[in-house]
Amino acid sequence: MRILCITPIGGAVDNQQRADLLASMARPETEIDFVSLSADGPRHVEYHSYEALALPDIVRIVRDAAGKYDAIVITCFYDLGLREAREISGRTVVTAPCQSALAIASQLGNTFSILVGRRKWIPKMSEAVRLYGQDHALASMRPVDLGVLDFNSHAEARQRLMDVGRRCVEEDGAEVLILGCGALYDFPLQMQEELGVPVIGALQAAFKYGEFLADTARRLGWYPSRKWGSEAPPEEDISAWGLFDQPAPVGQIVHARAGGDKPAIVKPAAVKRASG
C-alpha cells in the first residue's frame, strides 16, 4: 500500500520526523511519501490568503499522484483543498485531518473539544465541524495562543496544551480531545496519559483513516464516486487547455516504509512513483 502525505506549506519542513512517526504506526506493507510544496510558498496557512496560494499546488500534486498511490493525505486541519483534490484523484482516496479526526472521535466518546493555536482559526474550523455534521457533539474549541511555527519551538507549548486540554475535559465536558493542527503530532500520547481521555492527533488521524479507506477500496471496491457533485472535470478540457502540462510543484519528498530504515530525503521536480 502506498500513501502520499502532502504538507501544504513551502520548502523543506519537518517531513522526516513526521514520516518516522507515521512509519512507526503504519501497517507492515505500507510505504509513505511525505511531500511539501515548492520553496517559494508560504511557511504556514494560518491566513486565508496563504491558503489560496497553496491550493493550486495541492491540486497539481494530487493530479500527478492520482493512480500512483492508494491514498493521499492532506495534512492541514483546515482540510485545505480536500474537495478539490477528491474531484481529480481518480480511484485514489483522499483524506484530511478535520474530517478524519471527527469521524474517529464520534466512535470514542459523546463529546469532543478541539485545541487550536489561535482564535484566528476558530471561525473556519467551526464551519468545518458544522459541515461534517458534528456540531452537536462539540463541547468547546479553545486556543492556546500559539501559531503553527511556535508549537515545536516555544518552551511553554506542551504545558499550554496540557492546561487547556484539562479545562476542556473538566470544565467543558469533553470526553475526547482533538489537536487541531498537523504540526501537533508530537503531543497526543503524553496528554492522553495525563488527562485520561483519548487525544487524537490530526496527522495521525488522517493517515490511519487514509490507510483504512485504501484497504476498504481494495477489499470492497469502495472507490471515490464520480457521480453528480463528485463528477471529475472532463479530460478533454484538461488536455485542450493544458491545465496540468507543467510538473507538479514539489519542494521536498521523504520516503518511508513501515518497519524500515529512517526515510531518505530527495528533491525531485515532481511526484513520480511507479504504480504497483
Strands of the biggest beta sheet: in what spatial order? Answer: 4-3-1-2-9-10
Low-pLDDT residue intervals, each spanning 5 or more residues: 262-276
> Quick check: average pLDDT?
91
Structurally, how many domains make up the residues? Answer: 2
CATH architectural label of the largest domain: 3-Layer(aba) Sandwich
Measure the end-to-end span.
9 Å
Quote the beta fraction.
Answer: 15-25%
CATH class of the largest domain: Alpha Beta
Task: Round the Cα radius of gyration to an integer and report it.
Answer: 18 Å
Bin the helical content. 25-40%
Give your account of this protein's structure.
This protein is an alpha/beta fold. It has 2 domains: 157 residues, Rossmann fold (3-Layer(aba) Sandwich); 105 residues, 3-Layer(aba) Sandwich (Rossmann fold), CATH 3.40.50. The chain contains 9 helices and 10 strands. The strands form 2 sheets. It has a 6-stranded mixed beta sheet, sandwiched between helices. Strands 6-5-7-8 form a 4-stranded parallel beta sheet, with helices on both faces. Helix 3 links the parallel strand 3 and strand 4. Helix 4 packs across helix 8. The longest helix is centred in the C-terminal third of the chain and has 19 residues. The radius of gyration is 18 Å and the shape is globular.
In short:
By secondary structure, the chain is α/β, with parallel strands linked by helices.
Give short descriptive properties of this protein:
single chain, 276 residues, Rossmann fold, four-stranded parallel β-sheet, globular
